[in-house]
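Task: encode each sequence below as structure tokens.

Item 1
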Amino acid sequence: MIEDILDEAQGKMESTLSVFRDELSRMRSGRASTALVDRMTVEYYGQDTELRQLASISTPEAMQILIRPYDKGAIRNIEKAIQMSDIGVNPNVDGENIRLNMPALTRERRLELVKFLNRRMEDNRVAIRNIRRSANSDLQDFEKEKLISEDDRKRGETDVQKLTDKFVEQIGELGAAKEKDIMEV
């Protein structure tokens, strides 16, 4: 029973960490990254489709993203989707390809990104702590229903806390690495 609660809590915490990793990969840093655009949705024949399904995406230079649509008819829709997004880059269309030349980040923009990063880190820490609270609540309910003893509940809460500490630390490490990447000139 306690193992089930721990497994469920760990699964939820891993999911939260996975979403945070994905979010970090899409956050702009000092160099161009295909993750900025690969999950961008583009209207394609009336359907919202991820850009990575419509084109090959690469970074031929450190500050440039090259998008090669499989269907040349999708170029206008891809260009429109990029212009409507919040990445702050105007696409350059050269007939068959779309190039995104990433401007260098200003110091102010870097600091804004770090503030945003810190907010997202705290949001994810709170999510991990909420999972802990839910697991501890389940343990207390099991104790009230006489399914586990008080000692088992305390042991379970200790294990849940160890899990929580581990995942909060991982969020901190990922955030610190991303902050270093953002502030790197």
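Item 2
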Amino acid sequence: MVLPVFAYGQAVLRKVCDPIDSTFPELSKLIENMWETMYHTNGVGLAAPQIGKPIRIFVVDTIQIVENFDEEDRLDYPNEQPIKQVFINAEKLEESGQPWAYNEGCLSIPKVREDVHRAQSVKLRWLNEKFEPQEGLFDGITARVILHEYDHIDGKLFIDYLPPLKKRLLKKKLDDISTGRVKVDYRMVFPK
């Protein structure tokens, strides 16, 4: 089932999320709905707070992005390993590499895209959907998507990385989103 995406201004997007265990009710259905919602909205990642759940889970699929790399992208990201992965109770172990800028957007902040500097690589420990322990090192675009989604479960948004002047210039757009004055091709839940 495609779930509505919670819009900028919703309190759940600013909450540090709680870990879950294998007894979490209907977890497999939630994960299935998260994938369906992410694909329906043309996203490459989706975190539980974006669908109103303050829990430490997110999904990432960078396969299509990497498959669509042009020649320049392939030179810029020669070691890119795309993934399709569920991350439960992720713990960031290390960020490394020279921070680099990339134009990011967010399903919860539609029609806003800005350059954000993030580390080249991230090392994580997490549980997969079977609650099996995992650890991995991710680079490039995949690392960026993971860091973006990881921020969501820590109550952060990509706009938090912007300089104060840029945030002030975005204020009207952010106000429009938080008051429901934005048109998107997917259902959203706006603050009351």
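Check on item 2: The beta strands are 5-6, 45-47, 57-61, 84-96, 100-106, 109-118, 121-127, 133-139, 188-189. The two ends are 24 Å apart (CA to CA).
End of task.
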